[in-house]
Design brief:
Blueprint lengths: L7 H13 L39 H4 L6 E8 L6 E7 L5 E6 L4 H12 L8 E4 L8 H8 L2 E4 L9 H11 L13 H12 L13
Helix pairs in contact: 3-4
């Protein structure tokens, strides 16, 4: 023992660097799944999001989950890529917002995000997104919700691990063959209420609500 202490985020960054150089350190993670690329078009268009701010510039307090107001966001794509859900989860409380999207365009997603979260505006400080091009209009979300927005490294899903785990819970209700164009807002609201009323071990048995 040398007395050296490493923050877990530092370890994740090392794993990320190893992964993009062809290494397999990620296979030793508790959830060891090979990084994959979400296909949003005929070719990978990541990196084309203008004015994106990297997670590396995100305040350290966000990583510690020591306050309410830091969110993670992603999308769940439906069968045949015809529909999608926007999922937002608050890191400390695990409170989850699920929005059924009528289209995958970035402007539609941004508008839906603001409309469904404006009532929580005083509980939103930062949002960390995946790098999908559907978040290209992040500036609209930042302005509408008065939030600072950051983007995780491409293919580093562990950097939004709380959101990834929450999406796994949502998939218990909406399996991978679900056509979201046939899912109602009432069904989405039901799942949201179930998740937010569910006792969580990481919260000492308390629910997000």
């Amino acid at each position: 023992h040398t007395g050296v202490s490493l923050h877990h985020e530092t370890i994740y960054q090392l794993i990320y660097a190893d992964t993009i150089s062809g290494g397999d350190l990620y296979t030793h993670l508790r959830i060891a799944s090979k990084p994959y690329r979400k296909r949003y078009g005929s070719r990978d268009r990541r990196g084309r999001i203008k004015n994106r701010v990297s997670i590396e510039e995100r305040p350290a307090i966000v990583e510690r989950c020591g306050r309410v107001g830091d969110w993670e966001g992603d999308t769940i794509i439906g069968k045949g890529r015809k529909g999608a859900l926007l999922t937002m989860v608050e890191r400390k409380t695990l409170y989850t917002v699920i929005v059924r999207l009528t289209g995958k365009r970035a402007d539609l997603l941004a508008s839906a995000a603001v409309d469904h979260m404006i009532h929580l505006k005083d509980k939103i400080k930062t949002i960390t997104f995946d790098n999908g091009l559907e978040f290209a209009e992040h500036g609209v979300i930042a302005k509408g919700l008065d939030a600072d927005i950051y983007f995780a490294h491409p293919y580093a899903s562990w950097e939004r691990g709380i959101n990834e785990n929450t999406n796994g819970l949502i998939r218990q209700y909406f399996p991978k063959d679900t056509d979201f164009t046939k899912v109602t807002d009432e069904e989405v609201q039901f799942v949201m209420e179930r998740l937010n009323g569910r006792p969580r071990a990481s919260r000492g048995g308390r629910s997000p609500n």
